[in-house]
Amino acid sequence: MTTAKSKATKTKVKIVSPDLGHHATDVGLEFSKETEAKIKRILKRYPEDKAQSAVIPVLRLAQDEFGGWLSTSAMQLTAERLGLPYIRVYEVATFYTMFNLKPVGKYHLQVCTNCSCMIRGSDKIVEAVKDFTGISKNGEMSDDSLFTLTEVECLGACVEAPMMQVNNGYYTKLDKEKTLQILDALKKGEEVETATPTTPMKDGY
Amino acid sequence: MSEIKTITLTIDGQQTTVPAGSSIMDAAKSLDIEIPHFCFHKRLSVAGNCRMCLVQVEGGPPKPTASCCFPAGDGMVVHTQSDMVKDARKGVMEFLLINHPLDCPICDQAGECDLQDISVSYGSDQSHFAEQKRAVEDKDIGPKIKTVMTRCIHCTRCIRFATEVAGVEEMGATFRGENMSVGTYVESALQSELAGNMIDLCPVGALTSKPYAFTGRNWELIKTPSVDIMDAVGSNIEVHSRAGKVMRIIPRENDEVNEEWISDTARFSYDGLYENRITSPLLKNKGKFRAIGWKKAVETLLPKLDNKKTIAGLVGDLHAVEDLFAFNAFMKTTLGSDHVDARMNGFALDGSYRPSYLFNTTIEGVDSADAVVIIGSNPRLEAPIINARIRKNVVNRQMPVYMVGAEVDLTYKYKHLGDKPENIAELYDGKSAISKELAKFEKPLIILGADTLGRSDGLGIYKEAEKLADKIGALSSNWTGLNVLHNKASAVAALDLGVYPEDKGMDLGKTLKALEKGTVDTLILYGDSTHVDAEKLKGAKFTVYIGSHRDAYAEVADLVLPVTPYTEKDAWWVNTEGRLQEAKASVAPLMNAKEDWKVFRHLSGELGKPLPFNSLEELRAHVLKKCPNYKYNNCIAPAEKWVSIAGADKLLKKSFVETVTNFYKSNEILKASKVMTECAESSLNKNKAMRKAG
Ligand code: SF4
Ligand code: FES
Ligand code: FES
Fold first, then answer.
1. Cβ neighbours of A143 (radius 10 Å)
2. CB atoms < 10 A from the CB of B551, how many?
3. Torsion of CA B257, B258, B264, B265, to 10 degrees
4. Quick one: fold of B282-350+491-631?
5. Beta strands in B135-257 (DSSP E)
6. Lowest-pLDDT range, A53-67, A97-111, B122-136, B634-648?
7. How many other β-carbons are positioned within 10 Å of the β-carbon of residue B430?
8. Angle at B106 between CA B101 and CA B110, to 5 degrees
9. A101, part of any domain
10. Considering the domain boundaries, does residue A38 fall inside one?
11. Total number of domains in chain A
12. Do the chains contact at A13 and B187, CB–CB below 8 Å?
């Protein structure tokens, strides 16, 4: 969503078409047993009639469960699970850039291009990602569906700038080479150790 | 600590005292000081997001304060005309216009646009903004509302209306910052009977009327106060016409009836006034209608009205008081026939005791009820405005609602207690938990659906409801909580005026039987009704249809006489509360159509027994003699002492059914309207899609 715009381009608000994935009529969509258990745990944190409070964590679960992005149906499923009107979930899902409204690659590369990272050379990181993956524009997915590149605002890791987030892990103190190494390893399916632990809450949501 | 009940503050040097909890904006209003605003609306929650209402509060923070959401304080000194305020207003206007297209010349809102007015009065003529403006895609939200979302200033009134008043949470603000956009996200037609009100609420031209789009400028329109007749609420409307044609319909404010909302049938059905109309008398010849002159039509009709013949009259749903009176008198005194019935739904009661068929608590009374029991009615479709009022109380003060009847979506939660007449007894038997719960309320309000009272066991259901009312204290000296909710505009007036057999004539049921047997010589169908199938009306030797639209009833007739719909005559209307309201003619009768009462007056003269009135005033004097209550123009007659009416039927085991099956097609004007047809289709499609989605 965070499309950086050059000054001259006209901004058009894009409505993500529900045709991108599952349909509202796609009745098959369901949360898995594990996710359902997590949802139950989350709901326990809030009073019974305040299920709306659980929208964000449940949307995150839905995003993880259904391929790293939120189709309209995934949002509708979330709404139904929480007993909310659809629009109340659409509003939240479209507000936060952490929710992807279109399919993303297996690895979602979110490169910070905010002040600190920019000063420390984030432009080169973006370049490196583009070169390696063949992605030409911010927000796009590589042809092999492995990577999606998104430029993001400060992710709070300025001390170790420049940085990028891959799915849920942070990679920091990057330069061109290190970035390429990481991408190469990811492409081969190897694990690359992240810089920060990524479980802010007990069960991660 | 004693509680502070009132607050005294000074605004622009004038002192005012307001109740505690009032905002600065409220206080200013009490002094008639105007504060420009966009997002604030007195019938919606406070959002405080447009910042147009900034004022200066002395001694407060050194920045302007949003007066709509800042509580007035005791001793506060407020300025609304200081330099700081003027600058602030200019600044806010400048910001609001940054992304506004300023396309007034091609905007339907121009001339009645808050943004335009406030910009002229308080804005600046320059802007610092030289960059590219943003554009927002328009959304398709159905056949009622046209959207030009680039014009939206994000006041969120439409969202709050959908959420708070209409009870269909379909509008929202998606995305953020510069990309924020108001709409439904996934395009779909709004499923509300009140959606059109968003057009009035939208302070700019983002939401405008789709059927009215580009057809007129508001300053060219002649505005006539009128009363809506698409249901029996009697919503106050203003009919806007140009060059003798109705161009659009908008609400008038009346706190006692419709606040400032009207249903979409009231707002968008006016194209039906020009579709399928009967423009001259028609005579059937070998199965085909041929246009004839009035003179020939009367000549054809007179021999059929010979008083040796059996003449029956059935009266449709959309007639004004005067016309009903004239028709009734024509039938009973001129033709000497008592075979008249206007109760096309088979309504079980007659007009002998007025409170037995009125919405006694009054619509405003819903606000003071402490519980609502609905029996065999779907207020959402039978009276969307009353349903919105109930919803308001459910949302604001958690008023409980109970329902015996078909389970339908009312836009609020209710307890469903069965769908059979026998379930009513469980509510007052004094043993069940629910009857104990109901007995606790002080001002319970019972709503009986008029069509439910039209079942063959209607009287029995009425008596059951009366027992319930009595047992749970809905019939005390200061609270009459037993109400009938009518859904047809002329229902109450017809009962008031005695448009039913008063002597030994045939009622609807008997007339239908007689038609089957072929014993009716002449059948006069005055107006259309959705309650009785036209098929059943064949069988008279001669049938004459007197109406405005060439609908199913016209097709079974041998002779058709054109009369006027509600916009083409000065008339009185009586709503479900028994409130008489006056509507003015906004346009002249279409082509050869004539005002209804004049037709009956003329015919009576030709038959040698003239009705005793020659003008509308004289006719109204007669009406007043028959119904003295009608002197309470635009208000409600004082409550009468409750008298129980006699008789009881056996209750049937039959379940209550959904009373309105096609909201957008429930009378001849709606049936003729193309816009209503589209609405009916879009709600049908949506229902199908929902069902498929499970
Ligand atoms: S569409 Fe109109 S009412 Fe709705 S938020 Fe925009 S300006 Fe306000
Ligand atoms: S600026 Fe990049 S992490 Fe803060
Ligand atoms: S009217 Fe006060 S902020 Fe909009």
1. 11
2. 22
3. 10
4. Rossmann fold (3.40.50)
5. 145-147, 172-174, 181-183, 207-209, 222-227, 236-242, 245-251
6. B634-648
7. 8
8. 85
9. no
10. yes
11. 2
12. no
Residue A204 lies in a domain: no
For the record, the structure tokens of B463 come out as 């008596």
Q: Taking Cα atoms as reference points, which of B180, B185, B172 lies closest to residue B136?
A: B180
B685 falls in which pLDDT band (50, 70, 90)?
low
Q: Three-state SS string across B81-119, please?
A: CCHHHHHHHHHHHHHHHHCCCCCHHHCCCCCCCHHHHHH
What is the distance between the alpha carbons of residues B486 and B477, in angstroms, rounded to a whole number?
24
The angle formed by the CA atoms of residues B86, B92 and B97, to the nearest 5 degrees, is: 125
Name the minimum distance, in Å, from the CA of B684 to any CA of chain A: 16
Q: In the CATH scheme, what is the code of domain B360-485?
A: 3.40.228.10
B98 in contact with chain A, both atoms CB, cutoff 8 A: no
Q: Is the domain of A64 the same as that of A112?
A: no
Complex ipTM, two decimals?
Answer: 0.85
Instruction: Give the list of residues 6+ apart from residue B13 with CB closer than 8 angstroms, or none.
Output: none
The CATH number of residue A26's host domain is: 1.10.10
10 Å Cβ neighbour count for B269?
A: 26
Contact between chains at B139 and A15 (C-beta distance less than 8 A): yes
Q: Does A87 sit within 8 Å of B184, measured CB to CB?
A: yes
Pair A91, A116 in one domain? no
Q: What is the pTM of this model?
A: 0.91
Residue A62 structural domain: 12-95
Find the A49 Cα to ligand 1 centroid distance in Å: 29
What pLDDT sits at residue B221? 96
Closest Cα to atom 8 of ligand 1: B155
pLDDT in tens, B201-233: 999 999 999 999 999 999 999 999 999 999 999
Find the farthest-apart pair of alpha carbons in chain B and give their distance in angstroms, rounded: 90
Residue A203 pLDDT class (50, 70, 90 cuts): low
Residues of A with CB under 8 A from a CB of B: 1, 7-15, 18, 24-25, 27, 72, 85-88, 90-91, 94-95
Domain boundaries, chain B: 6-98, 282-350+491-631, 360-485
Architecture of domain B6-98: Roll (3.10)
> How does pLDDT run across B34-61, given as a tens digit for each residue?
999 999 999 999 999 999 999 999 987 8
In sequence order, what are the residues at sequence separation of 6 or more whose Cβ sits closer than 8 angstroms to the Cβ of residue B603? B298, B301, B302, B305, B330, B334
pLDDT tens for B279-334 read 999 999 988 999 999 999 999 999 999 878 899 999 999 999 999 999 999 999 99
